[in-house]
């Protein structure tokens, strides 16, 4: 290649990436515009809760979520409290983002009042609730406490918790990675180049994801946003570190930066592509999910990994070619300088010592590691990952959670968040009786478009159902009938996000099915129930699929059957250990109320895919060295050469995932701990000790049936 192209080609690559970053950067602030945290939107179309949500507008005016205002005074309400509450209801009714307001509802004990303000369909829930809370604070007399809760309140608290996900999360992750790179490489410039590569990859990913979400090709929510940022920064940095290590080696053997670049690309291209491809295939297995929130993460994460690969294999080589040895200042690798000795009696340093331990006590090492990991996994038996109440999703202060507690003290716990039953109008009476006979149901109404409140009471004692006054001219109002069905609303005695309410919904479904086999039950509680049930189903299906797919990839990459089985087995044991320790920490340190089913699935996908990454980095180098020096010597050389860079990469990835813990969302905090701890476990124990020791003991058998397994080859 001519000298002109050697200069122009890297410059063009850098300019193109600069252009992409300049266009994609502003979309960090825009992606929230195409993000949704509506739980129902993530359910599969086949779920009963989804079907009810889709048909609800047939029976009443289309509206947004209800915001429940609950007012409380210790020792009993006063006349001025009731007057202030009535004035507040009128004020809320005049708001443009409020579609309708219920009358002020007193509690039976006389200590609380309830107002249900239903938002308009197009209202921005977070902004509307924030404004309503301000109205409540301004309207209350001294001593009267007010909370805004209900579905709208919980959505607003969740939105607020995710508000820092763009700036705070990214800032913490980048700062942590920068410090680690400074410590590892002792170079002021190299960390900037590596993080610049990762940041540009994230800009490109955000740009593509934004437009795909805007076109409704992918769905984005707060958790997908956070995981995308962390995944891209962590993965791009990992791939960049692997290339950087190869480039530094090549600078010792090549006088020119161009020669070193070609050598580094030859040595790193296969493992980086294999590692990235494994992660992409792993996350795309989430498309087998029935839960749309899981499906959403698959393609979004795959896009992020693809740009991480592209940046690590194009932008970083161009940047390092531009700076050459100066990138490593003050520890610049000189041309012709000796490579570090990693094996033999003259070898010094940590990884030489680890190699000697593996060579002398391989069986003891892998047995002790395996037993230790299995012991950590005992905590799995205490793992509670069948879902948590919506009120516990936000860690720390939550006005909606406090309001829900007050509501449950003075009113039926499910006030404002009823279970919704759609069934045949001709069987309305039987449906009403079946619903009221279910333990945990406090009352039943029917949806009516012509009623000012949107519902009418029903008795289930005859005719077509109960009627209520309130229509035009004082005429009675009939329940709305659509396609031969009515919508019945059952107020639950327990809080809508409680385990007791979920059991009530299960009993409701059984009861109404006996009366009308086509009846379906939805609402807030049913949505949470269907989400948890679908999440449990997803992890049972997807986890085996991910294992099989990654095993096949490893077999193709390593040209072996035994070694991939060893790697997959080690990652499974490591995952069990991380999850077991996580379960103990969640219960006995943080006292979390449980875990979402998706925590197990997401942790598994990331740990297996990323854990295999490090094994790929190690084993591809081991195979390369084994072809020249024999299987057992290849293990020691591969371990010695890759030990530092893989450990650095593992610490970086653990730090980036740990950064998810700064967002006060239970789901993200749990994933942050499990993945960060699991990555460290993979890096320090599995990849450094367990896999090398087991591979060393197996010798050439580890590479069966490739040519490395044949006795005629080097030993």
UniProtKB/TrEMBL annotation:
<feature type="transmembrane region" description="Helical">
    <location>
        <begin position="565"/>
        <end position="586"/>
    </location>
</feature>
<feature type="transmembrane region" description="Helical">
    <location>
        <begin position="7"/>
        <end position="28"/>
    </location>
</feature>
<comment type="similarity">
    <text>Belongs to the resistance-nodulation-cell division (RND) (TC 2.A.6) family. MmpL subfamily.</text>
</comment>
<feature type="transmembrane region" description="Helical">
    <location>
        <begin position="541"/>
        <end position="558"/>
    </location>
</feature>
<keyword id="KW-1133">Transmembrane helix</keyword>
<dbReference type="GO" id="GO:0005886">
    <property type="term" value="C:plasma membrane"/>
</dbReference>
<feature type="compositionally biased region" description="Gly residues">
    <location>
        <begin position="460"/>
        <end position="474"/>
    </location>
</feature>
<feature type="transmembrane region" description="Helical">
    <location>
        <begin position="161"/>
        <end position="185"/>
    </location>
</feature>
<keyword id="KW-0812">Transmembrane</keyword>
<dbReference type="Pfam" id="PF03176">
    <property type="entry name" value="MMPL"/>
</dbReference>
<feature type="transmembrane region" description="Helical">
    <location>
        <begin position="225"/>
        <end position="245"/>
    </location>
</feature>
<feature type="domain" description="Membrane transport protein MMPL">
    <location>
        <begin position="42"/>
        <end position="363"/>
    </location>
</feature>
<dbReference type="InterPro" id="IPR050545">
    <property type="entry name" value="Mycobact_MmpL"/>
</dbReference>
<feature type="transmembrane region" description="Helical">
    <location>
        <begin position="192"/>
        <end position="213"/>
    </location>
</feature>
<feature type="transmembrane region" description="Helical">
    <location>
        <begin position="272"/>
        <end position="289"/>
    </location>
</feature>
<keyword id="KW-1003">Cell membrane</keyword>
<protein>
    <submittedName>
        <fullName>Membrane protein</fullName>
    </submittedName>
</protein>
<keyword id="KW-0472">Membrane</keyword>
<feature type="transmembrane region" description="Helical">
    <location>
        <begin position="639"/>
        <end position="659"/>
    </location>
</feature>
<dbReference type="InterPro" id="IPR004869">
    <property type="entry name" value="MMPL_dom"/>
</dbReference>
<feature type="transmembrane region" description="Helical">
    <location>
        <begin position="665"/>
        <end position="690"/>
    </location>
</feature>
<feature type="transmembrane region" description="Helical">
    <location>
        <begin position="301"/>
        <end position="323"/>
    </location>
</feature>
<feature type="region of interest" description="Disordered">
    <location>
        <begin position="446"/>
        <end position="480"/>
    </location>
</feature>
<feature type="domain" description="Membrane transport protein MMPL">
    <location>
        <begin position="406"/>
        <end position="707"/>
    </location>
</feature>
<feature type="transmembrane region" description="Helical">
    <location>
        <begin position="598"/>
        <end position="618"/>
    </location>
</feature>
<feature type="transmembrane region" description="Helical">
    <location>
        <begin position="364"/>
        <end position="383"/>
    </location>
</feature>
């Amino acid at each position: 290649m001519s000298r002109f192209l050697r200069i122009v080609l890297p410059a063009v690559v850098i300019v193109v990436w600069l252009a992409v970053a300049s266009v994609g950067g502003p979309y960090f602030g825009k992606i929230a515009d195409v993000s949704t945290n509506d739980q129902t939107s993530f359910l599969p179309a086949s779920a009963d809760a989804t079907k009810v949500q889709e048909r609800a507008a047939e029976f009443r005016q289309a509206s947004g979520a209800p915001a429940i205002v609950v007012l409380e005074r210790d020792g009993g309400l006063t006349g001025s409290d009731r007057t202030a509450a009535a004035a507040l209801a009128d004020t809320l009714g005049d708001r443009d983002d409020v579609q309708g307001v219920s009358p002020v509802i007193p509690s039976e004990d006389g200590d609380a009042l309830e107002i249900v303000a239903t938002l308009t369909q197009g209202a921005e829930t977070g902004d509307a609730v924030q404004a309503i809370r301000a109205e409540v604070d301004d309207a209350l007399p001294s001593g009267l406490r007010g909370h805004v809760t209900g579905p709208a309140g919980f959505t607003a608290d969740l939105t607020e918790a995710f508000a820092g996900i763009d700036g705070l999360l990214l800032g913490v992750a980048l700062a942590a990675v920068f410090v680690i790179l400074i410590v590892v490489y002792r170079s002021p410039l190299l960390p900037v180049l590596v993080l610049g590569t990762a940041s540009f990859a994230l800009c490109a990913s955000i740009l593509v994801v934004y437009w795909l979400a805007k076109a409704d090709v992918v769905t984005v929510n707060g958790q997908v946003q956070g995981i995308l940022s962390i995944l891209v920064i962590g993965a791009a940095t990992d791939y960049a570190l692997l290339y950087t290590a190869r480039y530094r080696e090549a600078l010792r053997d090549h006088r020119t930066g161009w020669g070193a670049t070609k050598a580094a690309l030859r040595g790193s291209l296969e493992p980086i592509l294999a590692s990235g491809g494994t992660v992409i295939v792993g996350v795309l297995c989430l498309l087998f999910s029935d839960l749309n929130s899981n499906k959403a993460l698959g393609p979004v994460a795959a896009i992020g990994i693809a740009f991480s690969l592209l940046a690590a294999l194009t932008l970083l080589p161009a940047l390092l070619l531009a700076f050459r040895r100066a990138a490593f200042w003050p520890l610049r690798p000189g041309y012709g300088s000796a490579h570090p000795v990693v094996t033999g009696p003259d070898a010094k340093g940590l990884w030489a010592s680890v190699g000697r331990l593996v060579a002398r006590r391989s069986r003891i090492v892998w047995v002790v590691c395996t037993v230790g990991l299995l012991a950590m996994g005992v905590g799995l038996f205490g793992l509670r990952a069948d879902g948590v109440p919506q009120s516990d999703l936000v860690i720390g202060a939550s006005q909606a959670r406090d309001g829900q507690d007050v509501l449950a003290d003075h009113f039926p716990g499910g006030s404002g968040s009823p279970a919704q039953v759609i069934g045949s109008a001709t069987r309305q009476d039987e449906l009403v009786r079946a619903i009221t006979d279910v333990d945990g149901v406090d009352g039943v109404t029917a949806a009516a478009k012509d009623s000012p409140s949107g519902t009418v009471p029903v008795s289930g004692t005859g005719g077509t159902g109960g009627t209520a006054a309130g229509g035009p001219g004082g005429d009675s109002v009939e329940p709305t009938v659509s396609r031969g069905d009515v919508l019945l609303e059952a107020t639950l005695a327990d809080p809508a996000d409680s385990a007791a309410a979920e059991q009530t919904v299960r009993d409701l479904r059984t009861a109404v099915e006996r009366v009308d086999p086509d009846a379906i039950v939805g609402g807030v509680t049913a949505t949470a129930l269907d989400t948890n049930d679908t999440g449990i189903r997803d992890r049972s299906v997807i986890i085996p699929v991910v294992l099989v797919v990654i095993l096949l990839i490893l077999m193709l990459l390593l040209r072996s059957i035994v070694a991939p089985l060893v790697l997959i087995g080690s990652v499974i044991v490591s995952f069990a250990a991380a999850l077991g320790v996580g379960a103990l920490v969640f219960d006995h340190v943080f006292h979390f109320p449980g875990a979402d089913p998706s925590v197990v699935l997401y942790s598994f996908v990331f740990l297996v895919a990323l854990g295999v990454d490090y094994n790929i980095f190690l084993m591809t180098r081991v195979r390369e060295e084994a072809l020249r020096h024999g299987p057992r010597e290849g293990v020691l050389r591969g371990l010695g050469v890759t030990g530092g860079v893989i450990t650095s990469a593992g610490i970086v990835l653990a730090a980036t995932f740990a950064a998810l813990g700064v967002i006060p969302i239970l789901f993200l905090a749990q994933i942050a701990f499990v993945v960060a701890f699991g990555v460290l476990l993979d890096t320090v124990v599995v990849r450094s000790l367990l896999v090398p020791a087991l591979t060393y003991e197996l010798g050439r058998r580890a590479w069966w049936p490739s040519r490395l397994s044949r006795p005629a080859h080097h030993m």
